[in-house]
Amino acid sequence: MQIPLRSNTTTQGRRMAGARSLWRANGMKEEHFGKPLIAVVNSFTQFVPGHAHLHNIGQHIKGLIEKQGYFAAEFNTIAIDDGIAMGHDGMLYSLPSRDVIADSVEYMCNAHKVDAIVCISNCDKITPGMLMAAMRLNIPAVFVSGGPMEAGEVDDRHLDLVDAMVMAADSNISDEYLAKVEENACPTCGSCSGMFTANSMNCLAEAIGLALPGNGTIVATHANRKRLFEEAVEKIIAATQTYYYEGNDKVLPRSIATRDAFLNAMKLDIAMGGSTNTVLHLLAIAHEAGVDFTMSDIDRLSRQTPNLCKVAPNSHYHIQDVNRAGGILSIMGEMERGGLLETNVNRIDGKTLAEAISEYDIKRETVTEDAFRRFKSAPGGGRNLVMGSQESTFKVLDDDREKGCIRSIEHAYNKDGGLAVLFGNIAEKGCIVKTAGVDSSIFQFKGKARVFNSQEDAVNGILGDAVQKGDVIVIRYEGPKGGPGMQEMLYPTSYLKSMQLDKYCALITDGRFSGGTSGLSIGHVSPEAAGGGAIGLIRDNDDIEIDITRRSINLLISEEELAERRKAEDAKGKDAWQAGERERNVSKALKAYASFVSSADLGAVRLID
Ligand SMILES: CC[C@H](C)C(=O)C(=O)O
Ligand SMILES: [Mg+2]
Q1: Which positions fall inside the Dihydroxy-acid/6-phosphogluconate dehydratase N-terminal domain (predicted)?
Q2: ipTM score
Q3: pLDDT tens per residue, range 585-601
């Protein structure tokens, strides 16, 4: 059964003469009318190294689509560089930009009646924003990211921007050495080279099945990255044809991103020690897809899924090393061997996950030459800002599942996952910790609260010696509503490292973390302080007890005392549950966001009836 093209609305019938004349002015030819209209959804910007190399690729894709006889048109979304926006009020805009991106893709595709989309994403909010839009639109969609940056190199050691951030506040590091690190930490185009949020999300897009093998791990500079874009064109043409001309809805985003696909993606995230932001984004994408996927699923999965991979900041490995070890489908191959995945799910290339694993897990006899081509894609070295401009290869792949970058279940770092959801009287709706980044010696931690009502105050406290070994730093009124925008606390956690306090302190916040954070850093505390959460009732010197093994986090005061404090806070009327004095300019755009946004345990989606 044929499905009518959405684009027929503006290209068919006598009454559309005006729209058609505009399409002609856009370059549409007679033969394009009545055929699928494909949008190239790009996110090129010269503000973000993860996107600065995407200028030409959109037009390259348009050209390839038009060779197949279909009209394609490119538009752009915004993209914020979290690393540049970090640590000042610019970061208030980061999470809200996810929804701006989702909305803008929806606006363009619905206003112009697009039939299918190729999404060119990369950094933190772009991939989730576009995935949210794809779920809303539910038209054929394929995702290709700009690819990871190559790791920096100083004195034979691999490093990245987080090393530069930590060293910048460490008085033991000389100015000369810091300058050398700064110069070399970010050598190429692409998303920052560790298991940060961008790379985590691009790996998850691959796990869900909306992106092709290698999407998460082939470096931006490699020729095989450019090939991924070209393959994506083949796949979107095939998906568009089978959907509209044969009525095959298996290729639609909501048929691919099913509950099983979300569960698989979350399990992959736990196994690879992904950024905690993935929790927020998967919840939001599932919400748009109408899939029942909640924090309690994440809690359950985290108890069942071993941690098979540790990447920077949790080890010396970078994403390029995950590629050399066989990429995401090889991690999923290890998980499949342990019966941890539901592999009978569809992918955008028409394969099931079971088929994809059999072709791309480098440890299978059935592995293909094509898999080796992708996973041999190596960094080129040196400064290189051009997409697909080098063809270096790894001489040998890393197939050591005992001590290598990807471990088998038998040799897991931790049988109990790389991520945990904790509950307790200060997080009744849960909070998140990336256990892959926590030294197991502090899985149980008890300390005195050191309370800050803003990230800025916390940074000053940490660098100004207000924080001592054994403290639990509390940073609140930084949640989705309270910030607003739920800033990433990368500077506070990096400065704890600079001050050599990270192994002796815990940090809890209703804000969130970048993938560059490690240590006993607990975020997404829900409900947030601005939403009446008990985190707002903590006082300096209160005792706080954290037990990762038991998944608990508690303020050690009596229920009566907690109730008294709540009563006193509520009695403040319109001043209740507010940060109080702090210098922060919240624009009207951000206030509009804050008026709709939900709490972190719901993915910080906007609640609109
Ligand atoms: C290095 C941190 C990166 C810029 C980030 O924002 C993230 O991982 O979320
Ligand atoms: Mg980020």
Answers
A1: 35-355
A2: 0.98
A3: 999 999 999 999 999 99
